[in-house]
Design brief:
159 residues, alpha+beta, 48% helix
Length: 159
């Protein structure tokens, strides 16, 4: 699933945004962002007006890459959840479907336990959405006439 290029369709985008909005409410978070592992911002909810979401997305992906490197150094496959504790705000990062990073920013109004509990449920929902996106992409690729053309067909055409 990781290697395949993903195209985000409007219907699934709305579903993803709804999951993020619900997570923001249920975890009592300040903000929730969903970021592609390559650093592309996907969506957000909550108090993001004063955030540079593009930079946050890029730095989150870099953080994930560095953390993955640390994991490999000590013999772990990865650290699927990372927690950063600040004086007033905290970040919880979680890998979703080996494809995206769910970022939850929260303060003293919430707790790490509540965030982890709600992230687990939301991650399962997002994983299902990502699976449906990939299934839709596969169906559409098979439905196009170009999906059936092989390299041999092209070679025969130009021989």
């Amino acid at each position: 699933m990781v290697d395949q290029q993903m195209v985000l369709y409007e219907e699934e985008f709305r579903q993803i945004a709804a999951v993020c909005e619900r997570l923001t409410r249920e975890a009592n978070a300040k903000a929730v962002l969903l970021v592609d592992k390559n650093g592309q911002f996907i969506t957000s909810s909550g108090e993001v007006d004063n955030l540079d979401t593009t930079s946050l997305a890029s730095l989150t992906a870099g953080n994930y890459a560095a953390t993955s490197g640390l994991a490999k150094l000590i013999g772990e496959k990865e650290f699927p959840n990372v927690f950063h504790e600040g004086e007033k705000d905290n970040l919880h990062l979680s890998i979703v479907a080996q494809r995206a990073i769910l970022v939850v920013m929260f303060d003293q109004r919430s707790s790490l336990g509540l965030v982890r509990l709600r992230v687990k449920k939301s991650s399962e929902e997002l994983t299902q959405i990502f699976h449906s996106i990939l299934a839709k992409a596969e169906r559409q690729a098979q439905a196009t006439p170009f999906g059936e053309i092989t390299d041999d067909d092209i070679d025969n055409l130009f021989s």
